[in-house]
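Bug #2210: token dump truncated for precorrin-2 dehydrogenase?
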Amino acid sequence: MKEYPAVLRLEGKRCLVVGGGAVAERKIASLLEAGALVTVISPAATAAVEKWAEAGRITWHCGRYGEADHDYTKDKEGSDKGRPGTEASFYPDLSPYLIVFAATDNSQVNERVRTDADAAGKLVSSADKPDRGSLIVPAAVRRGKLTLAVSTSGASPALSAKIGRELQERYGPEYEIYLDFLAELRELVRSRVGDMPLRHELLRRLPSWRVLDRIAAGTYEAWRASLLDRLQAAQGSEEIFAAVWMEADQE
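Reproduced locally. Full output below:
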């Protein structure tokens, strides 16, 4: 099956997680980190999920994911609640959600969630059968603005995790500092250099600078301060600014 890799920005977007165990907890934690608005349906939850619900960070419907042919009444959240005197079941309107996660320990429930989400035209991630969903969440390493993702298209999540651990060792915390520097200098170039070919050349050269070596050697902060001073002094023509820039890595 053909796939399209992408990075999603979920801040303020509604996502539904069906399940409240350890797997669901990891999904919820990642979604909260991304700023998503998370709704959870599960009859039980881990301590962390309960704390998030108590703190108002997520909406938790304590009950089972229901079936459309059950007798339901609407609750104030817009979900469907089971008949009084029975264990609550929830069959939510999926239209508000961008992504639906099937993350229970019951394969039949996960399959029903996946089928419902597909029918509603939603992206769906299936924890027990990732190759069946329309969204596969890759193993990821984050270093500030840097995100490295690995997917085996559902063939081996264990291998994805192994490669992810290797990347975590290869790309350490210094890359967060490095990416912040590149972002800072990129914005400076875009605001100060109007000549497009020159701007392109300057931006192309940035990753070749020995910034990581300076971070490792402990000389980065002094070098960065000196570089910024030199750039501020080159407030005249773009040619002077570019000349100082090109020389910056020759120290």
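Output looks complete on our side. The first helix runs from residue 22 to 33. Marking as cannot-reproduce; reopen if the truncation happens again.
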